[in-house]
Amino acid sequence: MTLEDQVLTDIERFSPRPRVIEDWEPIADILSNAFPWKGSKIAWGQLDWHSAAPIDLGQADCAPQLNAFLKTGDVLNALPDHEQIFYINDAALNVALSIRPEIFPEFLAYVVNDIPQHHYFFDSSGTWCFAVTAEGYVDFGGMAACADP
Questions:
Q1: How far apart are CA 30 and CA 85, in angstroms?
Q2: Domain residue spans in the chain?
């Protein structure tokens, strides 16, 4: 079983279930076009607002670290206004996923613990992005079109 097959099986446990988007390129284009980039990474310093923290990816369960950042970074306050949150990663999956805000913390912990690579979560208008990098950083930032959380 491939990693993608395993993920597609695992997402069945979430409620509401993430929606699988086979044609992921237009979703990736939202992220690519909405943010400034430096090489293969978002140029976080060029955004209108940004918060970041290191994360120890060597832990068996990263959920406590992620949940702490979600609270201190005020991420959860920014999510309720969005009907869907898109998820893509660097290369491990050949699909995008659309998730509901109410499963974001649980889904975030799942992907960080079980899927290698960088993880990107963002809204359909590309006004904010939440990312966890394989190098061990969590970032949350956006442009002026989204109110500073």
A1: 12
A2: 3-142
pTM of structure? 0.91
* Cα–Cα distance, 10 to 2 (Å, whole number): 12
Instruction: Report which of 96, 50, 100, 54 is spatially closest to residue 75, judged by C-alpha positions.
Output: 50
Phi first, then psi: give them for residue 133, nearest 5 degrees: -95, 155
Is residue 136 within 8 Å of 56, Cβ to Cβ?
A: yes
Judged by DSSP in three states, 88 sits in strand
Q: Tens digits of per-residue pLDDT, 1-19?
A: 898 999 999 999 999 999 9
pLDDT per residue as tens digits for the range 16-72 = 999 999 999 999 999 999 999 998 889 999 999 999 999 998 888 888 999 889 888
Determine if the peptide bond prior to 149 is cis (ω within 30°).
no
Residue 60: both structure tokens together: 């068996």
Label residue 20 exposed, middle or buried (CB < 10 Å: 0-12, 13-18, 19+): middle
Q: Tell me how far the alpha carbon of residue 128 is from its chain's centroid.
A: 10
